[in-house]
Specification:
The complex is a heterodimer of chains A (227) and B (261).
Chain A lengths: L1 H43 L4 H16 L2 H16 L6 H31 L2 H9 L4 H31 L11 H10 L9 H27 L5
Helix pairs in contact in A: 1-2, 1-4, 1-7, 1-8, 2-4, 3-4, 4-6, 5-6, 6-8, 7-8
Chain B lengths: L3 E10 L2 E11 L4 E5 L6 H8 L7 E6 L2 E5 L8 H8 L2 E4 L11 H13 L9 H18 L15 H13 L5 E5 L7 H16 L4 E4 L3 H7 L2 E6 L2 E6 L1 H6 L4 H11 L2
Parallel strand pairs in B: 3-8, 3-9, 6-7, 7-8
Antiparallel strand pairs in B: 1-2, 1-4, 4-5, 9-10
Helix pairs in contact in B: 3-4, 3-5, 4-5, 5-6
The chains are: A mainly alpha (227), B alpha/beta (261).
């Protein structure tokens, strides 16, 4: 116990900087995947069949294969096949991870969005049309909020999963929090063979997801004023 | 001159003919009731008038202006259609109120969006908004909903919702207000309050087309009745002509089911 107290400051500093990477990947993925998911959702609902087939094929492949493999393909593919490793250095690793995460999560989001869009009764659109509204106005003024209300619960699930999925980025050596925790098993900064820092990373995830759960729950309640 | 002229409207869904050569005209201030069994094409016809469906053949004229002509492509362009729709209002069987807006918000929304297209909108923003709000409130009062303006649709009864929907349609001052079975989703008690409001509109000489299964109501309120069967107009005339001096055997059969309970 005394030893742990001694190691604590070093470990916490390391885990904090690892968690910063985790947070960065989390937010960058959200910012990228939330709009990209909408584009994919509209693509898959397009009346132009080739576009809808293509997007559905992509979504099927992305959802049907492990994110870990996708990370590896994005990271190693350019170097192995084109002999051109475009992902250089720490920033490169982060960019590769972000690209894989954004594509992966955008596909999952697109399916949720599509459910949300199609869940709004056709009568809403018809009522808007009959009232002389443009399709654009109907989308933004009538359907969007109803859609958001429908997608908040499933999106909350995905977002909480994303927090934990960021740990997969350590397969391409992105130094996120698990990486930081593991380094003390292998030996780092004079500490080696310590397993507790790795276990301790779970507390970070737990607290962060706790905060997210409260925030998302609040958003859900905020939308309860209509049905 | 007739406010509405409909000629040779027909419509197919895949292989089924839903509307066959529909034609009639309506004078300003008239109330037309369209009756007929389910699947006879009544609703599809109303949807054609409101450009929710596109007829395969035929012409629709309002105040002499050709709004739709199946043989003229220009009359089928999206941007054109949006303006033309405003000649008509449509009240749906299932209300289709916007759930995230209050009763007042529902009535005001489309008017406010349209107002933004006025060239002088920016300069007179406040004034325009105030006018729209006043008119919307007056309409809700007229519908007997003066104390319900700030309620959301889920807080209202079906009858109240339908009256909000009627106010919402009236807010755009349509030439012709259409009702698609406005009371079919309501229990008898709530039906009365909606029919009363429609009756009041008829007394004010609002031109209306009402698809309904309420035969007594159609008889009382309508100045003209059309009986539709299998996509065709089988019989049309005054309520007396259609209900009392029925010519067609098919119409008699249909009406018998209602009068005999």
């Amino acid at each position: 116990m005394e030893l742990i107290m001694e190691q604590m400051p070093i470990v916490i500093r390391s885990l904090n900087s690892g968690f910063l990477q985790t947070l960065k990947l989390f937010f960058v993925t959200l910012v990228g995947a939330v709009p990209l998911g909408l584009v994919i959702a509209f693509g898959s609902m397009s009346r132009f069949k080739p576009l809808s087939w293509l997007t559905k094929l992509i979504v099927w492949i992305i959802r049907g294969t492990p994110l870990m493999i996708q990370l590896m393909i994005v990271f190693y593919f350019p170097g192995l096949v084109f002999h051109n490793q475009i992902w250089r250095g720490t920033a490169g690793r982060f960019a590769a991870a972000a690209a894989a995460f954004i594509i992966n999560y955008a596909c999952y989001f697109s399916v949720i969005y599509r459910g949300g869009i199609q869940g709004v009764p056709a009568g809403q659109e018809e009522a808007g049309l009959v009232l002389g509204m443009t399709k654009r106005q109907i989308f933004f003024k009538v359907k969007l909020l109803q859609m958001i209300k429908r997608i908040v619960p499933p999106m909350s699930n995905e977002i909480i999963t994303l927090v934990k999925d960021t740990s997969l980025a350590n397969t391409i050596a992105l130094q996120e929090i698990i990486w930081a925790g593991e380094s003390f098993v292998k030996g780092s900064q004079g500490i080696s063979g310590a397993i507790w820092p790795l276990f301790f990373t779970a507390v970070y995830y737990l607290i962060f997801n706790g905060v997210l759960t409260v925030l998302l729950g609040r958003l859900e309640r905020k939308l309860e004023y209509f049905r | 001159m007739a406010i509405l002229e409909v000629e040779h409207i027909s419509k197919n869904f895949e292989d089924t003919e839903v509307l066959k050569d529909i034609g009639f005209s309506l004078e300003k201030g008239e109330v037309l009731s369209i009756i007929g069994s389910s699947g006879s094409g009544k609703t599809t016809f109303l949807r054609c008038l409101n450009f929710l469906e596109q007829p395969d053949t035929g012409v629709i004229r309002v105040n002499g202006e050709v709004l739709f002509d199946a043989s003229v492509r220009q009359t089928q362009q999206e941007a054109e259609i949006r303006k033309k729709r405003l000649h008509f209002g449509l009240v749906f069987q299932s209300f289709n109120l916007f759930p995230q807006y209050t009763a007042l918000g529902n009535v005001m929304l489309a008017r406010e969006l349209l107002a933004k297209e006025q060239p002088d909108y920016k300069a007179r923003k406040k004034e325009i908004h105030q006018q729209i709000e006043e008119e919307a409130k007056a309409l809700l009062v007229q519908m007997g909903l003066g104390d319900r303006m700030e309620n959301y649709p889920h807080q209202l009864s079906g009858g109240q919702c339908q009256r909000v929907a009627i106010a919402r349609a009236l807010a755009l001052k349509p030439d012709i207000l259409c009702f698609d079975e406005p009371t079919s989703a309501l229990d008898p008690e709530l039906t009365g309050e909606v029919l009363k409001v429609i009756k009041e509109l008829a007394d004010k000489k609002m031109t209306m087309i009402i698809v309904t299964h309420e035969m007594a109501f159609a008889h009382d309120v309508a100045s003209k009745v059309i009986f539709m069967d299998d996509g065709m107009i089988l019989e049309q005339g005054t309520p007396q002509e259609v209900f009392e001096n029925t010519r067609e055997e098919r119409t008699k059969q249909f009406l018998a089911r209602y009068t005999n309970g």
